[in-house]
Write a structure and sequence with these properties.
DUF2690, 40% helix, five-stranded antiparallel beta sheet, single chain, 434 Repressor (Amino-terminal Domain), membrane, alpha+beta, 299 residues, transmembrane helix, 9 helices, globular
């Protein structure tokens, strides 16, 4: 049984419940922090921060620990979502009451006589001047609004074209490529074509991430996985949904260790550092034993 340090007093109730739940799951696995790092895409230091309430873990880390511990993912993610909402809820600031006007005796000025002001405003010259200023102000405002409407599409187009990804490296890990914009500069680093589907290893230079993409000829994939090295893996269980399917992203700077795999109709194909199809076959000199690696993917 691990001897946990007390959680920070600054944690709200939802974040404290999440940290306690993650600690219980870690104990259930019987793994040390090193062992947990080897079983998931997250480092020992990252798990130290997550389990001690120093940082809210990403959703993919919670899913990974739940998978290793055999937890009820739906219940676990409900705890995570509550903690995430509490952490990211906007802070409402009470409206500031307008300052009360200073009493006349504090201003150092004497109010203009009401009768003089009425006589001044009745002057035809002043009224004409005020009317002209109002008309000119309305015209300028109308022209500015029209110019803004014309300029808006062009500005939006420039923004969309020049937009940089919303994350990089480990900040992207566990996310899908479209939302942060990692698909914009994605390229296929490796491709394998099977009789029933095509599997691609995709890489985004701007995000520094890889993911797996599968395009079945018909039907859908059962699972799509991305590997970096022997132990870093993220999987999307697509449950046979038709059409293109992708895995979450993994961060890497070494494409030689990346492997994209997909399972469709109980057949498996992998491409990248190794290329495997069932039955397993691999190139000589690969870091991964072909048959054993394929057995891990099939699980």
């Amino acid at each position: 049984m691990s001897r946990w340090r007390p959680l920070p007093d600054t944690l709200d109730a939802d974040a404290q419940r999440l940290a306690e739940e993650l600690r219980a799951l870690k104990e259930r696995t019987g793994l040390s922090l090193d062992g947990l790092a080897r079983k998931t895409p997250y480092s020992k230091s990252a798990w130290h921060r997550y389990l001690n309430g120093e940082k809210l873990p990403p959703r993919s880390a919670v899913e990974a620990l739940g998978q290793v511990a055999g937890a009820d993912q739906e219940q676990l993610l409900a705890v995570y979502d509550a903690a995430y909402r509490a952490r990211t809820a906007p802070v409402t600031t009470p409206p500031v009451a307008p300052a009360a006007p200073l009493p006349e005796e504090r201003t150092g000025r004497t109010a203009e006589p009401a009768g003089w002001a009425r006589k001044f405003l009745r002057s035809a010259g002043v009224l004409r001047t005020v009317g002209a200023l109002v008309a000119l102000t309305a015209l300028v405002a109308t022209m500015g609004a029209a110019a803004a409407i014309v300029e808006m599409p062009a500005r939006a187009a420039r923004t969309d074209g020049d937009a940089s990804p919303a994350c990089h490296g480990h900040r992207c890990q566990g996310r899908y490529p479209w939302r942060p914009g990692c698909n914009r500069d994605a390229r296929a680093e490796s491709t394998i074509v099977d009789a029933t589907y095509t599997v691609r290893l995709r890489f985004s230079p701007s995000c520094g991430t890889v993911w797996s993409e599968v395009q079945p000829r018909s039907g859908g994939a059962q699972k799509v996985s991305i590997w970096v090295g022997r132990d870093a893996r993220l999987t999307s269980h697509t449950h046979g949904r038709e059409g293109l399917a992708v895995s979450p992203m993994l961060a890497t700077s070494d494409l030689r260790q990346a492997v994209a795999c997909a399972k469709v109709a109980d057949r498996v194909a992998c491409t990248g550092a190794i290329e495997l199809t069932s039955p397993a076959r691999s190139r000589d000199g690969d870091d991964f034993p072909g048959t054993k690696f394929l057995e891990r993917v099939m699980r």
